[in-house]
Amino acid sequence: MSIVARGFDLLAALLGLILSSPIFLAIAILIKCESRGPVFFHGARVGKDGILFFILKFRTMRADAAQRGARITTRNDARITRAGRFLRRSKLDELPQLWNVLRGEMSLVGPRPEDPRYVKYYTPAQRAVLQVRPGITGAASIAFRHEEEILEGATWEQQYLEKVMPAKLALELAYLQRRTFWSDLEILARTGLALFV
């Protein structure tokens, strides 16, 4: 990543955290009023060069969700709280990842970081996505913004491994071939539009 792009990431993440601090407070109150447990979710993800880090999100599921089901959210997942459904639809649950950007673990734009359980299924060609910082948004994030609606039934994991994950990785690899600072700005603009469509 160029110095300009990293500088933009840092400035945008810092401003985003400052400007959204009232929203952070409101969401934290909403989460705590509805269910017991922490405000934030820390999930292990694989980052640049295969280095493990912990992604930060607002918690959208029951505090014991990890003991009650899959690592990936599926359609009509009963573990999602009412507040969580709103946060997921609006993508506000992703806001805390601005902190991951500040820490240098993520970028604003890049391939979405994957759970270690699924990275082991990457082919050598697909592992090229690990050469860059993962992003809060990206080409696959826009195309699959309603991913959990696709995954349902007892075969959800097979659907993810055989169809969804390869399709997402193909989009990200194609994007990385032509990626520029300006194309990243376009992705950010498209992400903003997608939230309202």
Would you kindly provide a written description of the structure presented here, covering whatever features stand out?
This protein has one domain (3-194). It has 197 residues and is mainly α. It is globular, with a radius of gyration of 16 Å. It contains 9 helices and 4 strands. It has helices at 3-19, 21-34, 82-90, 97-102, 116-119, 139-143, 147-150, 156-178, 181-194; strands at residues 40-46, 52-58, 107-109, 135-137. The strands form 2 sheets. It has a two-stranded antiparallel sheet with strand order 1-2.
What labels describe this entry?
mainly alpha; globular; single chain; two-stranded antiparallel sheet; 9 helices; two-stranded parallel ribbon
Short description:
With 197 residues, the protein is mostly helical. The chain has helices at 3-19, 21-34, 82-90, 97-102, 116-119, 139-143, 147-150, 156-178, 181-194, and strands at residues 40-46, 52-58, 107-109, 135-137. The longest helix is centred in the C-terminal third of the chain and has 23 residues, at 156-178.
SSE diagram, text form:
Layout: H1 3-19, H2 21-34, E1 40-46, E2 52-58, H3 82-90, H4 97-102, E3 107-109, H5 116-119, E4 135-137, H6 139-143, H7 147-150, H8 156-178, H9 181-194
Parallel strand pairs: 3-4
Antiparallel strand pairs: 1-2
